[in-house]
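Subgroup meeting minutes
Present: P.N., E.W., G.H.
Scribe: E.W.

1. P.N. recapped why we're keeping a running log of single-chain structure predictions: easier to compare across weeks, and new members can see raw inputs and outputs side by side.
2. G.H. added today's entry (141 aa).
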Amino acid sequence: MRFASMIFMTLSILGCSETSTPRPPTFPSPPVSTPSPQPTPPQSNLIAIRGFVITPIGECIEGATVEVVAGPTTGQKATQKLPCDTARYSGGFLFDEGVPAGDWGEIWLRASAPGYVSQEYNLSQWPWDVVARLTLHPTGR
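Output recorded in log:
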């Protein structure tokens, strides 16, 4: 009996030592779930052209239209939406179909409105992230 007690005590001490071999858990670990990959949105090389057609004192012109007269999207037209506010960037015109970014070449816009002299602007010289302000002068009638 004394021999059995010594074996039990020895096994108890060895079972608690840090050098003992780790035992696998008695229950299975839950499976690790990995999130399904999200689809990558398609990349676009188009940028929107946005701006305002204004008077020399900065007021938006009702009924103004802007047309691409030269460039990769020749023929596109946009009408100024009112009310517009140049300080809050609301209203104005927007070519929402976009213009190819990168090497645009020459892009010319023509702004026009009843009672104002039409004016053409070379957009190629403007940074792409600047909101265009196209100024028209009254016809003088």
